[in-house]
């Protein structure tokens, strides 16, 4: 579920434009590319599009589970061990499936508006907004019992997270106003140990080749009076201190980092923007033009995945972009493709 929807409503083809259907009964889904499609807002079910090479399966969960519905709204997913965990936002649940055959094995229920996952080799975490969209928390999930092992209350609206040196860094945004912090949680004790002050409404976070954190802040958006809106920003954080800050347009979103950890990409002003982590200034460099709903990056192939949600009611598309050659490919997805997961 994209923040904009919540606020408003509560030339060359590398891979070809035509894709063939796979024989899912004979497939192993422990590796491949997954598109988490949100589904029609409030009225539909989320779906998973699976992609492996040039082969595509639409609604993988339904096909592997006797036409069962995944739920409304599919938000994100992650692989941990031999299972995939899928957050279903409006349905307030986590759907767990076996990685090899994508068969459902359990639901973790009563998780208020779950959002995004982060994991290391020992622990799995999930951010959630809470019923009022602003009383959020981070939940530790026990991957064996598939239950909530611990809950860390944070307030406001926690979004993307990363784990670095046994510290969980959580971007804290807001659906009703302004939040200006990244929370640092010790993953051994599950205790909050620090707050890093940021610009308005941090939503995305990545680490670079040097171990520095990069945080994308979307800014505050006032749809009734745009003059009150604030700009976005890109922050570099070293040793839990902001050491560089670049002003962006309001609404910048979707931060990813390439396979080398040297180059960042994000969405802004209907463009795919790039920033080298060594640059002392922001060059406002666009590598591809167009409005996209989400962005992902296949680090193994260093290809950018861009979600075209079309009219938000019909099947969407994914554009695959080679940022060096600017060549593109395309394949079909479900309704409102909103998140990419690459399982290797």
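Sequence proposed for the structure above (344 residues):
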């Amino acid at each position: 579920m994209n923040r904009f929807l919540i606020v408003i409503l509560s030339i060359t083809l590398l891979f070809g434009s035509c894709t063939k259907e796979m024989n899912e009964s004979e497939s192993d889904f422990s590796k491949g590319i997954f598109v988490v499609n949100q589904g029609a807002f409030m009225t539909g079910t989320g779906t998973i599009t699976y992609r492996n090479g040039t082969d595509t399966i639409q609604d993988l969960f339904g096909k592997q589970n006797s036409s069962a519905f995944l739920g409304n709204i599919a938000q994100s997913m992650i692989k941990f061990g031999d299972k995939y965990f899928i957050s279903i936002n409006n349905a307030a649940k986590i759907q767990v499936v076996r990685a090899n055959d994508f068969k459902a094995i359990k639901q973790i229920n009563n998780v208020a508006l779950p959002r995004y996952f982060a994991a290391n080799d020992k622990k799995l975490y999930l951010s959630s907004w809470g019923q009022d969209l602003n009383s959020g928390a981070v939940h530790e999930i026990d991957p064996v019992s598939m239950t909530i092992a611990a809950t860390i209350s944070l307030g406001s609206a926690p979004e993307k997270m990363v784990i670095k040196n046994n510290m969980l860094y959580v971007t804290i945004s807001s659906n009703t106003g302004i939040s200006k912090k990244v929370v640092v949680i010790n993953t051994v004790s599950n205790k909050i140990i620090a707050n890093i002050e940021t610009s308005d409404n941090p939503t995305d976070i990545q680490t670079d080749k040097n171990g520095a954190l990069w945080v994308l802040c979307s800014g505050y958006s006032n749809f009734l009076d745009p003059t009150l809106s604030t700009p976005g920003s890109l922050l570099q954080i070293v040793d839990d201190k902001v050491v560089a800050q670049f002003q962006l347009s309001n609404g910048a979103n979707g931060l990813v980092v390439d396979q080398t950890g040297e180059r960042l990409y994000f969405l802004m002003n209907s463009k795919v923007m790039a920033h080298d982590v060594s640059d002392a200034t922001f060059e406002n460099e666009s590598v591809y033009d167009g409005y996209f709903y989400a962005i992902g990056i296949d680090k193994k192939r260093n290809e950018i995945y861009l979600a075209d949600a079309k009219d938000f009611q019909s099947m969407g598309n994914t554009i695959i972009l080679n940022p060096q050659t600017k060549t593109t490919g395309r394949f079909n997805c479900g309704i409102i493709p909103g998140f990419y997961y690459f399982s290797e």
